[in-house]
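[job 0412] stage=complex_fold ligand=adenosine monophosphate status=START
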Amino acid sequence: MNFILFGPPGAGKGTQAKFIVDTYSIPQISTGDILRDAVKSKSPLGVKAKEIMNSGALVSDEVVLAIVEERLAKSDCDNGFVLDGFPRTLPQAEALKALLGKNSKKINCVISLDIADEVIVKRLSGRRTCSVCGAGYHLLADPPKTDGVCNKCSGTLVQRDDDCEATIRKRLQVYHEQTSPLKEYYENGGFLFHVDGTSSIQEIQTTIQSIVKSTNV
Ligand code: AMP
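[job 0412] stage=complex_fold status=DONE, emitting structure tokens
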């Protein structure tokens, strides 16, 4: 099963991708995570991407496509994968289709997590991540026991550079201008499923499971 998790930043794509990974034993491919790792390691790609990411803009299609092509070529993607945060532009979607087509593959299911901008701003500005183990928290919905400290490993909690309000609003603008037109693109293919992104994590998981069943792949 080849999935795309689609939706604005902060819709919960990463959370649901992890559920799909555990349930269907397929890898998550998050272009945002790959780019953040590159920034952390100060690789040439990371140096190029850092400023663009911090501004809330999109990294070039060429760079992102090279990342995805290399990742999809790995053997752990043979039985399926879940794309999280990719594609984000029409050229990326077209290139993905061509790339998969070369290997007689296709996307089976696009899950769109629908959620309003103001909910996202609240969600993302409260998001914190452990700098050591990567565990996620939210200052209002899921606060750590001690301020700024991870419950699991006592690591320091940090805020993503692009989770400040001004950058969140810029990312949302970019989403509406460049990414949300992809909904129509996939709707025309007949395999786009809308899910209410404000439902509980568990409810969304249950909905995803019934969608997968209904696709019969
Ligand atoms: P994310 O974690 O998916 O919200 O991605 C964080 C940032 O990485 C985005 O705001 C972009 O700057 C960059 N990025 C991630 N995925 C893509 C993509 N498919 N195309 C272009 N830029 C991307």
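The mean pLDDT is 94.
[job 0412] exit 0
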